[in-house]
Automatic annotation (TrEMBL):
InterPro entries: Amidase_Cbmase (IPR010158), ArgE/DapE_CS (IPR001261), Bact_exopeptidase_dim_dom (IPR036264), Peptidase_M20 (IPR002933), Peptidase_M20_dimer (IPR011650). Allantoate binds at R198, N259, R272. GO terms for molecular function: hydrolase activity, acting on carbon-nitrogen (but not peptide) bonds, in linear amidines; metal ion binding. Binds 2 Zn(2+) ions per subunit. Transmembrane segments: none annotated. The keyword Chloroplast does not apply. This is Zn-dependent hydrolase.
Length: 393
């Protein structure tokens, strides 16, 4: 269930491969005794009722969409883990006090609409009407994409979950980095998750003939954009009280002809840190630098904010529940998440926790992404124990 025309494992939201994967998930959920539904944001939800109806559900979730050229573990192991836990409860005839919801969140990865964590944003009321009206390069409007997978965008605001509607959200995820493997640990107790601020930068100059235009008469959008890209790297390499990363991953040069001075460059940047104030400070410095380059090179440079997710710290008592469960199952350590997750959005309405399993060579968002199956199994075991610990607490 992946796009054969793309490298690696590619399952972009709203595509036929994504919908094929969703149908398979639905079957797996039904066979595991879950009542299946799709919410207003298009999130696929499997539910098992608990014995104490007054308790709000425990939620396990992640995502099954991938980046372009992605791997086989990012996101999907968190959804499959939830279904496996549901299957075990069914097999052993166990009923939890809390109801249990297993969620495949719509479009967690940065999408062609310029937004990530679309489904979890919708679930917590953080997907604005402006965002719903955004279109991708094929002209698909986000709200129509959500309808394609069974969502009801007109009801997102009304049906959003509010603070207190979920007792606990837990996510099992691959680490997507090198720390667990380097430290020979089998499980990660996540202490916090970075905030991510994403911007689209447009640099407009004047296309012209590369042979007849003297160097001092050019308005070259690409050389101007290059100064900005290097400045972002320089700013993010400075030292701060918490780690920072900054990336330009998407870059379009037009008209992109060998003998044409570039007239228009559009690129997307993101800055991440566990401290959102550091991100804001870096973006202020970057905007000031952009203004200077615009003046010096007579270019028109615009910065448009695409999305902001807030950094979160996992509550100590949730860390303890997760650490106790991990400690029984294997060698674990505490670590922050440099990747963003649906947990960033759920943290706005509920206590959240995450468990990591190791990524071979720290690789992710590429076909080489790999986690040994016994590590995945260990992660499911730890997640199951954390759920039971919380359910009985
Ligand atoms: O980009 C991320 O941090 C995550 O993999 N969505
Ligand atoms: Mn990812
Ligand atoms: Mn992910
Ligand atoms: Mn995630």
């Amino acid at each position: 269930m992946v796009d054969p025309s793309k490298p690696g494992w590619t399952r972009r939201p709203f595509t036929p491969w994504y919908q094929e994967g969703r149908s398979w998930l639905e079957q797996q959920m039904e066979q595991s005794g879950l009542q299946v539904s799709t919410d207003a944001g298009g999130n696929l939800i499997g539910k098992i009722e608990g014995s104490k109806a007054h308790l709000k559900p425990i939620m396990i979730g992640s995502h099954t969409d991938t980046v372009i050229g992605g791997g086989r573990f990012d996101g999907i192991i968190g959804v499959i883990a939830g279904i496996e836990i549901a299957r075990r409860l069914q097999e052993t005839g166990t009923t939890l006090n809390h109801s249990l919801e297993i969620v495949d969140f719509t479009a967690e990865e940065p999408s062609e609409f310029g937004i990530s964590t679309i489904g979890s944003r919708a679930m917590v009321g953080n997907l604005s009407p402006e965002m719903l009206k955004r279109t991708d390069p094929t002209g698909l409007v986000l709200e129509d994409g959500i309808r394609m997978i069974g969502g009801n965008p007109d009801k997102i605001e009304e049906l959003a979950r509010r603070k207190g509607d979920v007792s606990l959200y837990l996510e099992l995820h691959i680490e997507q980095g090198p720390v667990l493997e380097q430290n020979k640990k089998q499980l990660g107790v996540v202490t916090g998750i970075v905030g991510i601020h994403r911007y689209r930068v447009t640099v407009e100059g004047k296309p012209n003939h590369a042979g007849t235009t003297p160097m001092d008469m050019r308005f070259d959008a690409l050389t101007g954009a290059s100064e900005l890209v290097l400045e972002l790297e320089r700013l993010c390499k400075e030292s701060y009280s918490d780690p920072v990363v900054g990336t330009v991953g998407k870059f379009i040069n037009e008209p992109n002809g060998a003998n044409v001075i570039p007239g228009l460059v559009t690129f997307e940047l993101e800055v991440r840190s566990i401290d959102s104030k550091i991100i804001e400070m870096i973006m202020k410095k970057f905007a000031d630098f952009s203004n200077r380059v615009a003046t010096e090179r007579s270019l028109c440079i615009t910065l448009d904010n695409l999305s902001k997710s807030d950094a979160i710290r996992v509550l100590p008592d949730i860390q303890e529940i997760v650490a106790d469960a991990c400690g029984i199952v294997g060698e674990s350590q505490y670590l922050p998440s440099g990747a963003g997750h649906d947990a960033n959005q759920l943290a706005t309405i509920a206590p959240v926790g995450m468990i990591f399993v190791p990524s071979r060579d720290g690789r992710s968002h590429c076909p080489e992404e790999w986690t040994d199956f016994e590590d995945v199994t260990r992660g499911v075991e730890a997640l199951a124990r954390a759920i039971m610990n919380f359910d009985h607490s």
